[in-house]
Write a structure and sequence with these properties.
Strand order of the largest sheet: 2-1-3-4-11-10-9-6-7
Strand content: 25-35%
Largest sheet: 9 strands, mixed
Number of domains: 1
Number of strands: 11
Shape: globular
Helix content: 25-40%
Radius of gyration: 16 Å
């Protein structure tokens, strides 16, 4: 019998900037197309080891908040993975927008993601450029314009940039991939508005990122 992957979509925002309910249907549609079992919650108790080990992928759309020591250790161990020990296979992780500004008391978390939110100008329209057209996440994606918050971040390389944009004199990463231990990480700073998720190119990117996380070795 074919094993159905299990995915946790985790939200939670004390300011209601990024309510999970505004995008949950989009991820439900992904679950039907990509054939995975989706759990949608704002309950951060799912980050404890006993619950987190049940999933193959965590999609994080949280904002701010903290992890206690047990949650932090459980998430770190789960993503790192250890098939030869008690932890088992790694869990992959997708960080979207506010996830880059979450769990502020866990510095390892931002190093795992590859970036940490610092500030953003008022939402505006800007061009997003595809840096790597051969990566499975962006191979069928074209450069596009988007109206969104542009996150300016502190970065923690190394990572492989997939999308970037111009800000002043500099080209800054918008989406990237990396490994953390044995786990695969995809981070994207876009996603303040529901309309961003519905943009054809962003929708394609997220679909591809989930497929890559679940089905690409």
């Amino acid at each position: 019998m074919k094993r159905i992957p299990k995915v946790l979509l985790l939200g939670g925002d004390p300011h209601n900037y990024h309510p999970l309910g505004k995008v949950s249907d989009i991820f439900f549609n992904y679950s039907k197309k990509l054939e995975f079992d989706l759990t949608i919650t704002t309950d951060r108790k799912y980050l404890y080891l006993k619950k987190i080990k049940n999933f193959d992928l965590i999609i994080c759309y949280t904002t701010e908040g903290k992890m206690d020591k047990k949650q932090s250790q459980a998430l770190k161990e789960a993503i790192t993975g250890n098939p030869w020990g008690k932890i088992g296979r790694p869990i992959n992780f997708i960080a979207i927008h506010g996830a880059l500004a979450s769990f502020l008391n866990s510095e390892w978390y931002f190093k795992m993601l590859g970036g940490k939110f610092l500030v953003h100008p008022p939402a505006t329209r800007f061009t997003v450029n595809v840096v790597d057209k051969n990566n499975p996440i962006t191979q069928d994606v074209s450069d596009f314009e988007i109206n969104d918050e542009l996150y300016l971040m502190e970065f923690y390389p190394p990572f492989h940039t997939l999308l970037s944009t111009r800000y002043g004199e500099f080209e800054i990463p918008v989406a990237w991939v990396k490994n953390y231990g044995m786990g695969k990480i995809f981070s994207i700073s876009l996603g303040h508005f529901r309309e961003v998720f519905l943009h054809p190119e962003v929708n394609k990117i997220l679909y591809n990122a989930i497929k890559w996380s679940l089905y690409t070795l």
